[in-house]
């Protein structure tokens, strides 16, 4: 059923509901005229064509037979007609009363709301039909898409900002932001109607999506549906121009690409990274939002990302901008205080690729704790299937103890006498310290914890080591301390950590062999001699705002004289050729050598160093 036909049916129902009331009004106004002629509304003639079209489109609707009423005559005939009119009025009133009583509990919805509900229901039905196909195997039932199911109403950070600060504050901020960008709205872009987006809220001054990308279904292994982005020829042309500008580190050329292709993904990501380093964080967030808007507009109609059964593999180069944009957007929302939205984006990012190329597994616990989703994190650690048990990872071993602490407080406040078989928060924290003792020393230095009791605790031999000696585990511990150290500034968490440390010291004093047992558990869980997570940078999990002075951003800039070279694409892809220094002024060559984009070849530099003319060689 199309939306046009559905709206037509809804319109007919509304007209039928208004039919008794309109007939009643017409009967009251249809009194006999002195000259025997009825009143005619000239504007009704404009709707004759539309009514004729509706009658042709709807042959099944049969109108009531029209009866020709003769002109009333003075005398007794007029009295009889008036009595008939009063009887009809009584019948109409009775019908209106019965219909109003029967329709009182029902709430009428607008046509747009019904259409949205219709499409949402159809979308769910498509997912159910696909899950019931013969392609789905038993392994799909063992997977856990439901724990990663995303709630769309918490996905947009603007909605969470309205819940935190109120709609009036957010509206005033949006008005100031739109007035500040009014110059960008000029040039025929004002009043552009954008598509509805779940991830971001498109701004009014954004251009219309150019449709340069699309998403296609590849195959459906084990019940998961793999998708990949495809790009048009115009987008590939913009990509070649971007690669050319990137080869010479020319930011102005990248901005020129965005001028002609405003939704080029790599250019938007590059500009967002640049704005972040120069301190323009709002402009960086806008570039990421525009990138996500373009990626969402290209989604396949059968793509149901919030169900957890659709994947977009990172191994395809065409899909990588989606992961980078989502990860950057997730960190931006956390800095704004929208922790619940950041958690939903992290769940979405983890569900897109089970290999977890961006390391969403090592920050999802942080977002769950900040969003106070303690029960969900416990369910996630129990239901999510991974290569390793989740509690063995340092971030989950400590975060689960934190969640259990707050859940215990919530249960005690409700005065519930229900007995739980789960371990207490102190036992979980003791287990985390026995498994990953090096976390304590790094937390004391990073938080920092300056009380004297922590200095005395670190004198114990069990907590003095800086590293475990397992590359993968040491790297994950650094990531955890960098991303989660801020939550350990709370006094109740410091008390929990201090009590658990005292229990660990007392246990090792009574039985020192437990230290060796936990060391065997670590080696068995992380048996590789190489760092399996070297692709994850510790700085990517830092939520501090990076900044760099302009003189340290030379890799973003290039010589303005190279703008003439951009007309030749072959010269742009290849680096500039070494410059010849023969028969040139030595003083000019000296000043020119200071420029970062000028080089004279390896042979000339080696000769200068051998002859004592290189840098650092003085007579």
Helices and strands, with pairings:
Blueprint: H1 3-29, H2 48-57, H3 76-102, H4 111-131, H5 138-142, H6 157-165, H7 167-180, E1 213-219, E2 225-231, H8 233-247, H9 251-260, H10 265-278, H11 281-297, E3 310-312, H12 320-335, H13 339-352, H14 364-370, H15 374-383, H16 394-413, H17 425-435, H18 438-446, H19 452-457, H20 471-484, H21 491-510, H22 514-525, H23 569-573, H24 586-592, H25 602-610
Parallel strand pairs: 2-3
Antiparallel strand pairs: 1-2
Structural summary, described in words:
The protein has helices at 3-29, 48-57, 76-102, 111-131, 138-142, 157-165, 167-180, 233-247, 251-260, 265-278, 281-297, 320-335, 339-352, 364-370, 374-383, 394-413, 425-435, 438-446, 452-457, 471-484, 491-510, 514-525, 569-573, 586-592, 602-610; strands at 213-219, 225-231, 310-312. It has 619 residues and is mainly alpha-helical. The protein has a 3-stranded mixed β-sheet with strand order 1-2-3. Strand 1 and strand 2 (225-231) form a beta hairpin.
């Amino acid at each position: 059923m199309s939306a046009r036909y559905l709206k037509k049916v809804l319109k007919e129902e509304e007209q039928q509901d208004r039919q008794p009331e309109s007939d009643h009004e017409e009967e009251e106004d249809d009194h006999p005229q002195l000259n025997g002629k009825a009143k005619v509304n000239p504007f009704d003639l404009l709707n004759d064509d539309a009514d004729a079209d509706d009658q042709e489109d709807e042959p099944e609707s049969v109108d009531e037979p029209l009866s020709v009423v003769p002109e009333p005559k003075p005398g007794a005939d007029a009295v009889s007609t008036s009595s008939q009119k009063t009887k009809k009025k009584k019948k109409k009133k009775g019908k209106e009363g019965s219909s109003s009583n029967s329709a009182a509990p029902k709430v009428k919805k607008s046509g747009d709301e019904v259409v949205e509900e219709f499409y949402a229901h159809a979308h769910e039905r498509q997912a159910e039909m696909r899950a019931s196909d013969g392609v789905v195997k038993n392994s799909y039932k063992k997977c856990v898409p439901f724990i990663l199911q995303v709630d769309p109403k918490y996905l947009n950070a603007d909605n969470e900002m309205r819940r935190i600060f109120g709609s009036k504050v957010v509206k005033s901020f949006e008005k100031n932001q739109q007035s500040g960008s009014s110059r960008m709205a000029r040039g025929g872009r004002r009043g552009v109607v954008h598509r509805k987006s779940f991830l971001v809220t498109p701004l009014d001054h954004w251009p219309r999506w150019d449709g340069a990308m699309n998403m296609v279904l590849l195959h459906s292994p084990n019940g998961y549906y793999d998708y990949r982005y495809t790009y048009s020829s115009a987008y590939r042309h913009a990509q070649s121009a971007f690669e050319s500008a990137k080869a010479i580190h020319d930011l102005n050329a990248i901005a020129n690409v965005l001028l002609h292709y405003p939704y080029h993904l790599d250019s938007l990501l590059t500009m967002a990274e640049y704005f972040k380093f120069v301190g323009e964080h709002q402009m960086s967030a806008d570039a990421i939002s525009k990138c996500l808007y373009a990626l969402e507009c290209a989604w396949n109609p059968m793509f149901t990302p919030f169900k957890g059964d659709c994947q977009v593999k990172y191994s395809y180069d065409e899909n990588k901008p989606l992961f980078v944009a989502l990860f950057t957007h997730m960190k931006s929302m956390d800095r704004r205080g929208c922790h619940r939205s950041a958690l939903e984006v992290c769940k979405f990012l983890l569900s897109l690729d089970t290999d977890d190329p961006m390391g969403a597994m090592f920050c999802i616990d942080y977002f769950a704790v900040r969003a106070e989703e303690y029960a969900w994190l416990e369910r996630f650690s129990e239901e999510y299937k991974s290569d390793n048990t989740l509690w063995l990872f340092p971030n989950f071993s400590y975060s689960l103890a934190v969640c259990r602490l707050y859940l215990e407080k919530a249960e005690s406040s409700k005065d519930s006498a229900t007995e739980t078989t789960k371990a207490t928060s102190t036992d979980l924290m003791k287990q985390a310290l026995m498994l990953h003792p090096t976390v304590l020393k790094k937390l004391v230095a990073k938080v920092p914890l300056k009380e004297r009791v922590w200095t005395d605790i670190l004198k114990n031999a069990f907590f003095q080591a800086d590293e475990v000696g397992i590359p993968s585990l040491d790297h994950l511990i650094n990531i955890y301390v960098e991303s989660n150290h801020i939550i350990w500034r709370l006094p109740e968490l410091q008390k929990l950590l201090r009590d658990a440390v005292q229990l660990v010291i007392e246990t090792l004093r009574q039985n020192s062999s437990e230290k060796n047992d936990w060391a065997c558990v670590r080696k068995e869980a992380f048996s590789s001699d190489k760092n399996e997570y070297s692709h994850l940078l510790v700085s990517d999990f830092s939520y501090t705002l990076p900044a760099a002075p302009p003189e340290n951003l030379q890799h973003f800039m290039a010589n303005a004289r190279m703008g003439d070279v951009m007309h030749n694409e072959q010269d742009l892809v290849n680096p500039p050729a070494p410059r010849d220094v023969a028969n040139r002024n030595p003083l000019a060559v000296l000043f020119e050598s200071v420029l970062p984009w000028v080089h004279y070849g390896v042979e000339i530099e080696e000769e200068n160093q051998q002859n004592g003319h290189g840098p650092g060689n003085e007579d």
